[in-house]
Design goal:
Length: 586
């Protein structure tokens, strides 16, 4: 098992390189920027549909109003994603532009949205009340048009880069105000992007008889079909867990490529459900509630197992500290506290549990009558509740939840027991070294050196790029005094970051420091980062350190990136978090 872990560590730089790919980052961050659309629209959809499940009949005007809000939010998801993806891709491209040459992210955002409409939307005329009307087919404006959105975003930014790098812009006299001059400089790249996408649209429609968005769906349908088989679902889930196990945020690598089909399938499930049928798609957006039941690795039951069945003081403490966060899908305290990341004892159950869960889910959907997931719920919804809601409150869903909890417990327990024995032996050895009785291990403080496995995991968890570089040097512009400091903590989904941000707030109150701390998701920080003095990267987004450092150096912001176990310790020690900030600003 140790040989397997060493092999994974050897290839970690390659996997980190994949996670930092600018195209995957742009897709992930662009989609993340549109998550308010998904969640808000789903609320109105739930209001319109769920009362009928329990026999409550709402006034039809209210139902129509809620459906309108849903259609005018989720229904234009593709257009919005085109803009946010282009904006984030522009930010990445600007880091690679020659000095003095910058792409206008506002212009690329609008150009990408126009280009996406050209690639995805069909315009035709129809008669209404005796008059001819020009009509847009809205089918591909939403989640069905996500592939067109990505293609439009990438084409647009590359056209802008080509034009700006070669000064192919309209230049006005220096007396012209900057805002007006910028509009003229954007005319050539804007027109170039729109024209190229327009040409692609004409060629595809004439050769294939379908819009570009339908062409992609047609060409990739065998891949999507394969992804919704048992092997496909298992491969997706195994890859997600595997990347997280080696310290790379797995969902950031795996999910961007399948998000379009996951959302399209979930929307189709909803249509079938509303029509009275059986939603049969298993590869859906909220399948993550099953595969990542409590977080990547399907760790929902693990904290309870640690509390009830483990004898090691370390594992019992981790179980108590992580049981509430894991219930809300924030499982970093468990991942880095046990640890599970790069812990050879945990590799098999960490990968296998989620794979078993998605397989059982597909079996229940295909053979037992459980609905495929139809409603979108927030990612932090406790998994059992989320599964019950998104299957339209089916009782069979509760049976399913009970079964996967039992299966996950069976999968994890033998490996946890083996790891627990190792830690108990180490705790007994340390107690003997300190001249204590064997039962005195409970008094060993956190200052005692960690178990060998934990030390190994903590030391290799950071990305290769970040681990090989020296600790960030003190910036001249960084504040030496923490009083009046504004701190922004970033993670992948604003869950883990909230833990440290709250600890800093609590520590500031305890020490009397005037510190403001906020939590955010990486990818949504670009518009607000200049309002902060310090930015802290959580371990799950530490792989973005180099890209982030270029931005923070330019803005004179201090960037900190604590390691996995160190980060978790800071979330549990508010006063220590303030001390850590002070030490890293000196």
């Amino acid at each position: 098992m140790d040989a397997i872990v060493k092999m994974l560590e050897k290839h970690q730089p390659f996997f980190e390189k994949i996670s930092r790919n600018v195209y995957l980052q742009a897709i992930k961050d662009g989609f993340l920027g549109c998550m308010p659309i998904v969640l808000t629209s789903s609320i109105f959809l739930l209001i319109a549909t769920l009362p009928g499940v329990v026999g409550i009949t709402l006034p039809q005007p209210l139902i129509d109003w809620c459906n309108k809000l849903y259609n005018f939010t989720m229904g234009v998801m593709g257009i919005m994603v085109a803009g946010t993806t282009a904006k984030n891709f522009t930010a990445s491209m600007n880091r690679r532009m020659p000095a003095g040459k910058v792409l206008n992210d506002g212009s690329t955002m609008v150009a990408a949205q126009c280009s996406m409409l050209l690639l995805a939307v069909t315009q035709f005329t129809t008669k209404f009340n005796g008059s001819e009307l020009s009509v847009f087919d809205c089918t591909s404006m939403g989640t069905r048009g996500l592939f067109s959105a990505y293609i439009a975003a990438f084409i647009t930014v590359w056209v802008y880069k080509f034009c700006v790098s070669r000064d192919l812009t309209i230049k006005l006299p220096k007396e012209v105000p900057g805002a007006i001059a910028q509009n003229f400089r954007d005319i050539i790249p804007f027109g170039g992007a729109v024209i190229i996408c327009g040409i692609i649209d004409v060629v595809v429609r004439n050769l294939m008889g379908v819009p570009f968005s339908e062409l992609l769906i047609k060409l990739l349908s065998p891949l999507f079909t394969a992804a919704e088989t048992y092997p496909g679902l298992i491969l997706i889930q195994a890859a997600t867990a595997f990347f997280w196990f080696i310290g790379v945020h797995g969902p950031s690598i795996v999910q961007p490529g399948i998000d379009p089909i996951r959302l399209a399938n979930q929307a189709e499930n909803l249509q079938v459900l509303l029509a009275g049928g059986h939603p049969a798609h298993s590869l859906t957006f909220n399948m993550s509630l099953v595969g990542e039941f409590g977080g990547t690795g399907a760790t929902f039951i693990v904290p309870l197992l640690l509390i009830l069945f483990m004898k090691s003081k370390q594992l019992k403490a981790v179980g108590k500290a992580s049981i509430v966060p894991v219930a809300f899908a924030v499982n970093e305290p468990l991942l880095f506290g046990a640890p599970m990341i790069l812990n050879p004892y945990m590799l098999i159950p960490f990968v296998a549990a989620g794979c078993v869960n998605v397989s059982v889910a597909k079996f229940f959907i295909d053979n037992v009558g459980m609905n495929g997931f139809s409603f979108v719920v927030p990612w932090a919804t406790p998994a059992p509740i989320g599964i019950f809601i998104t299957t339209n409150f089916q009782l069979i869903a509760l049976v399913f939840v009970a079964i996967i909890i039992l299966l996950d417990a069976i999968i994890y327990l033998p490996f946890l027991k083996a790891y627990d024995k190792l830690l108990c032996d180490q705790e007994a050895e340390r107690a003997a070294e300190l001249g204590l009785e064997s039962d005195g291990a409970a008094t060993i403080t956190a200052s005692t050196s960690a178990p060998a496995v934990e030390q190994t995991a903590a030391s290799v968890e950071p990305t290769a790029a970040a681990a090989d570089q020296p600790e960030p040097a003190s910036d001249a512009s960084a504040k030496k005094d923490v009083d009046g400091l504004k701190v922004l903590v970033l993670c992948a989904g604003a869950g883990t970051s909230a833990m440290l941000a709250n600890a800093i707030k609590e520590g500031a109150a305890q020490t009397g420091e005037n510190i403001a701390s906020s939590a955010g998701a990486y990818g949504q920080h670009t518009a607000i980062m200049d309002q902060y003095d310090v930015i802290v990267l959580a371990p799950q987004v530490r792989s973005y350190y180099n890209d982030m450092k270029a931005d923070t150096d330019r803005l004179g912001i201090k960037l900190l990136a604590p390691r996995g176990k160190e980060y978790i310790d800071l979330t549990r020690d508010p006063a220590g978090a303030i001390k850590w900030l002070r030490e890293n600003l000196d």
